[in-house]
Amino acid sequence: MAEPEFTAMGVRIGRRMRSLTRAGQVRISGGRLELLNSYGSEIDSAPVQAVRASRPWFAPDGRALADVNGTRYLLTLGEQDPPPGRPGPPAARRFIEAVRRAAGRGG
């Protein structure tokens, strides 16, 4: 099995004003984006070409919007695996770049 292109754990995944999970997982692997709950069950998934990821103008760093199969999810990503000695880019920005890269839209 191929190494995932992006993985974030401990992600709060919400839809509208409802929280779906506070310890979910976001994974991009094999050209697909998967949103998983804390038990590993799939909340939603789609090919990355059909996913739109952006940073909400109204939210602080660490949050991203993902439109998956016509449903908008608000993702709150913490700092995951920063390189030793360097903080690196925020996880939300890395997620958006990973979606764009995997979909072939640049990054």
Can you put this structure into words, describing what you see?
The protein has 107 residues and is mostly beta strands. It has a single domain (6-102), classed as Pleckstrin-homology domain (PH domain)/Phosphotyrosine-binding domain (PTB) (PH-domain like), CATH 2.30.29. The protein is built from one helix and seven strands, in the order E-E-E-E-E-E-E-H. It has one helix at residues 91-102, and strands at 6-15, 18-29, 32-36, 42-47, 52-54, 63-68, 71-76. Strands 4-3-2-1-7-6-5 form a seven-stranded antiparallel β-sheet, with helices on one face. A hairpin with a 5-residue loop joins strand 3 and strand 4. It is globular, with a radius of gyration of 13 Å. It starts with 5 loop residues before the first strand and ends in a 5-residue tail after the last helix. The mean pLDDT is 87.
Topology:
Layout: E1 6-15, E2 18-29, E3 32-36, E4 42-47, E5 52-54, E6 63-68, E7 71-76, H1 91-102
Antiparallel strand pairs: 1-2, 1-7, 2-3, 3-4, 5-6, 6-7
Please give a quick description of this structure:
By secondary structure, the protein is mainly beta.
Observed structural traits:
single chain, 107 residues, mainly beta, PH-domain like, seven-stranded antiparallel β-sheet, 11% helix
- Average pLDDT: 87
| Count of DSSP-assigned helices | 1
**Radius of gyration using CA atoms only:** 13 Å
**Name of the top-level CATH class:** Mainly Beta
**Overall 3D geometry?**
globular
- Which segments are poorly predicted (pLDDT under 50) over 5 or more consecutive residues? none
Give me the strand/helix succession. EEEEEEEH
State the helical fraction. Answer: 10-25%
Provide the number of structural domains. Answer: 1
Largest beta-sheet details: 7 strands, antiparallel
**How large a portion of the residues is in β-strands, by DSSP E?**
35-45%
The CATH topology corresponds to PH-domain like
Question: CATH homologous superfamily?
Answer: Pleckstrin-homology domain (PH domain)/Phosphotyrosine-binding domain (PTB)
> What is the structural class?
mainly beta
Alpha-carbon distance between the two ends = 24 Å
CATH architecture type: Roll
The largest beta-sheet arranges its strands as 4-3-2-1-7-6-5
Oligomer: single chain
The total strand number stands at 7
